[in-house]
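All the exercises in this workshop are built on plain-text protein records. The record below serves as our worked example for the rest of this section.
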Amino acid sequence: MPKNPTQHRRERMESVLAHRQPDLTLVLANIHDPHNVSAIYRSCDAFGVESVHLYYTDTAFPILGRKSSASARKWVQSKRHRDKEELAQALSGMQILVTDCTPTARPMRSWDFTKPTAIIMGNEHSGVAPELAEIATGELYIPMYGMIQSFNVSVAAAIILAEAARQREEAGFYDKRRYDDITWQKKLEDWLER
């Protein structure tokens, strides 16, 4: 006997929520291209990121197309921050990594993404703002071997999240629910109302 649509929807939501990683997040820092922002949200949903932090101080948050982003943004929570201090408070207790190519940056795979981690993705043209580098605990770069030495920001986000997911999968983070029972039930009820 086939499942009714309501039961199927509920089971799908339970499965997705069971894989969410509440201690892995991205910070979108003044990223202005709506296509990049939409693609980042889709990657976050795909790799189980629960929420994205928005730090927009000198750039307006882009208007996102309904088709390309609405579905992913529906399932990934957005948290806006007015200043560096508010963002730092929200990320307290996490290793905060900025994407950068400075001499002190370490290759992406040398970082332990099984720790609570926030990765700051900077503006397409100017990178991560200096004030955000001040709150970071480290810098990472994606090793590249071609003539071009940079990725599109949405591609970079997907590559970093894929490495984080690989490490977390090996550690069994996707094998068991990461929420306590009360939080789990609250989130499930919220999703069922969407």
Q: What stands out?
A: The mean pLDDT is 92. The chain is about 40% helix and 15% strand. The helical segments are 5-18, 34-46, 66-75, 84-90, 130-133, 153-170, 181-192. Strands lie at 24-29, 51-55, 77-81, 95-99, 106-107, 117-121, 138-141.
